Amino acid sequence: MKKIIFSLFVALSSVTTVQAADANAGKEKAAVCSACHGPTGVSASGMFPNLAGQNDAYIIKQLTDFKSGARNDAMMAPMAANLSDEDMADLAAHFSSLPNVNEQAAASSGPAESTGSTVAASPAGNVEIVSSTPAAAIYQGDVAAGKSKSAACAACHGADGNSLAPIYPVLAGQSANYLAKQLEDFKSGDRKDPVMAGMVAGLSPEDMHDLAAYFAVQTTKAGTGETNEAGHKLYIGGDSTREIAACIACHGVTGKGVKQAGFPGLTGQSQEYLTKQLVSFRDGTRNNDNNGIMRNIAIKLSDANIEAVTQYITSLK
Ligand code: HEC
Ligand code: HEC
Ligand code: HEC
């Protein structure tokens, strides 16, 4: 009897938790998840599970286990690391409220528009507007205004964002969200670089979005480096014995990144710049990555790994 009362209590209290959760807050918090699990909880790749319509209690348990390490996955561990119990409940409420994959497929054979998520191309080019993600992830800049403001950047980054010297990163075709975040981070000091600190000091948030928009719609030049077998293996497969996540999950098959999520493209960057960033994430001198997403990976990379994977990235087209 005691046992029955106890389990009834557990059942009731978990119902209360679920009711307290806020699916709308969960929707906002899910912006980063959409890179892998899809904006509507249906994943675009067979590597990632669908979350739409999943039981909320099950989602909470999995997130708790990824956080504690009871369930081990190199990609989900950094995602869950900083989630509070409330975040998990909100995310679970959001994903469980979405129509499941079959319902979404049925709905899209009629007039589209399932959960309010739309991905539209802007007239300026290839910049996505994802209405299901929060403000920070929405592309806001004005390309023409960005072009005139970019005169100050050309000396180092090139007029079209294709830098000529290897110490200067390529900005052409980079995710607008990522570029705007870097400019904000240089200004706040979250990302430290003496040259860039001076460049951003006078920029307003609007300037940053305009500059980001301008560079995002330029065309990245293809990489011209030699490939590297060990680097290729690490890039596409990670290293499960050392819990290193595959770069491909966030930076994409051809190194173009995941624009909406602000996961940067790497294609066209020099080996020198890539190496400097990985070493800086590894020693913590670059620490502006949310949730330590890159530091958790870089800390496990040896010098030989960094040399191989950066060499491989320079061959991506
Ligand atoms: C970089 C890709 C990536 C991102 C971003 C990501 N996930 Fe995952 N997620 C995965 C992978 C891969 C798995 C499968 C892990 C495994 O097989 O052990 C997974 C599994 C899960 C599961 C377990 C599903 C099941 O049926 O077992 C949940 C729940 C989940 N993710 C929630 C989230 C949430 C919430 C976020 C955002 C805060 C998120 N994920 C962000 C890649 C990702
Ligand atoms: C004098 C040279 C110089 C000028 C001018 C300059 N930059 Fe930079 N920029 C750099 C250097 C060097 C870095 C790399 C810093 C590092 O190693 O972390 C950088 C990095 C960046 C990054 C980060 C790129 C990434 O992939 O993470 C962005 C964004 C950026 N610059 C935008 C701009 C904009 C916009 C302007 C004009 C307003 C500008 N820069 C002007 C030298 C310059
Ligand atoms: C779970 C997602 C994820 C995985 C997996 C991942 N990255 Fe990243 N990476 C990011 C994010 C997000 C950033 C940008 C952080 C920020 O906001 O500054 C980044 C930034 C970088 C940068 C700096 C880019 C620039 O322009 O300055 C390099 C280089 C990089 N990653 C290389 C790698 C390599 C190599 C691997 C595989 C060994 C890898 N990443 C795996 C998410 C990931």
Automatic annotation (TrEMBL):
Comp. bias (Polar residues): 102-120
Signal peptide: 1-20
Keyword Magnesium among record annotations: no
UniProt keyword list: Electron transport, Heme, Iron, Metal-binding, Signal, Transport
Entry-linked InterPro entries: Cyt_c-like_dom, Cyt_c-like_dom_sf, Cytochrome_c_Oxidase_Subunit
Lineage: superkingdom: Bacteria
Ranges where the Cytochrome c domain occurs: 21-99, 141-219, 226-317
Chain segments carrying region Disordered: 102-121
Record PANTHER family: CBB3-TYPE CYTOCHROME C OXIDASE SUBUNIT FIXP, CYTOCHROME C4
Protein name, entry field: Cytochrome c4
Species this protein is from: Colwellia echini
Lineage: Bacteria, Pseudomonadati, Pseudomonadota, Gammaproteobacteria, Alteromonadales
